[in-house]
């Protein structure tokens, strides 16, 4: 492979990131050249010609001052709005994205498909389909970096971060860890294999024996006896989990949170952090009893409980999970005063 100035453009966002970069480079180069030329020109044009020469004082110049205020302001606003729009696009996975889970540790990447396939330092994905990554770390901070996709996202212990990409052409692309994480940080590398959809389906069907994430999660749910309290008919001492995923949950504190992956993870590992309204803080912590991969299996299992077709919005859900809450509040879970009840 020959030398290239920029990495290959292999994802939908890579073109937009590069266009923005070219624009920033062009602006920077234009003004650098302009300033250096002006310095050279003025130092010659207005050089001191004799010892007795006195320069005449200049008292402002309104058109000039307006120009050097308005032009940079306009340029920085273009950079800001353009950059923000690319950032928003890059940080919001489309709804139809397929889900991949990533667990980082010193010094490897563990990747899981919801169908059950597990990979180490390799990830197979189909071309032309958005892929959403939900990532966490078992130890220190790592960073998931695929230059060809222009994707880089920190992977943090104790919480989930997400990113997404959509490959545009089949190929084999470098995966790096981009956050110094210890002795073998430089060896924490891998490959992304972007495949034609039918090749991907063939690859995927090669390893179904292990059971899907949700199936393994159901086993774990039974092993941990979660069902003793979380009864599917809502009669248990703890909230019914059927249909929970994606809903807004009314908490005892008055706040409303959206039941996403991070909420479910926290509820397993720190059950007392967010108590659902109408329930007692009975649940023990499962911190140390369940691995991050086990938590992901449980999350997928709970998500799968919400996919029952034909269940209308809100039915079959405990009253505590079924309050009428405007959807817009869900994005600010910590803002306890934003619920309608407290207004
Ligand atoms: Cu993991 Cu650097």
List the helices and strands and how they pair.
Layout: H1 12-45, H2 62-91, E1 98-105, E2 108-113, E3 118-120, E4 122-126, E5 131-137, E6 142-146, E7 151-155, E8 161-165, E9 171-177, E10 190-195, H3 197-205, H4 213-223, E11 248-250, E12 256-258, H5 261-269, H6 292-305
Parallel strand pairs: 1-5, 4-10
Antiparallel strand pairs: 1-2, 2-3, 5-8, 6-7, 6-9, 9-10, 11-12
The structure holds dinuclear copper ion.
The biggest beta sheet is recorded as:
5 strands, mixed
CATH architecture classification name of the largest domain: Sandwich
Can you write the helix and strand succession as a string? Answer: HHEEEEEEEEEEHHEEHH
| β-sheet strand percentage | 15-25%
- Average pLDDT, to the nearest integer? 82
Domain module tally: 2
Task: Briefly note the CATH topology name of the largest domain.
Answer: Immunoglobulin-like
Number of helices: 6
Give the C-alpha Rg. Answer: 27 Å
Q: Which parts are unreliable, with pLDDT below 50 for 5 consecutive residues or more?
A: 309-343
Annotation, overall tally of beta strands: 12
